[in-house]
Design goal:
Keywords: Membrane, Transmembrane, Transmembrane helix. This is Inner membrane protein YjcH. The chain is mostly helical. The protein is built from four helices and two strands; from the N terminus they run H-H-H-E-E-H. It has a two-stranded antiparallel ribbon with strand order 1-2. Helix 2 runs antiparallel to helix 4.
Length: about 120
Amino acid sequence: MSDTDLPIRKEANPELISGERYLQVQASPEFQELRSRLRRFVFPMTAFFLIWYATYVVLGAFAHDFMATRVWGDINVGLIIGLGQFLTTFLITGLYVRFANREIDPRASAIRAELESEIK
């Protein structure tokens, strides 16, 4: 579990950070850059996968002959594309984990450390 997933501990200082301070951090350029980087990855990847999945569904509904085309033995195009959906899911997950570890987590940790330094 990442340090950014853990709550700020009340025992560190009974005077927790105010909601106003959180709003200031949310409006900061560092936080805005963090959100921007996350969105630049998540939205295109989501659009790609939804289009890829919709294509599979449309082909399954309207291109029966194409999807039933045998490739090898009882394996047909529909089965290969269906398995490709799973592979794509794993690939996107791996890409996101790598992206988050390199881009998101260090920035989030820096913002959190700055905020926590105010209560110590």
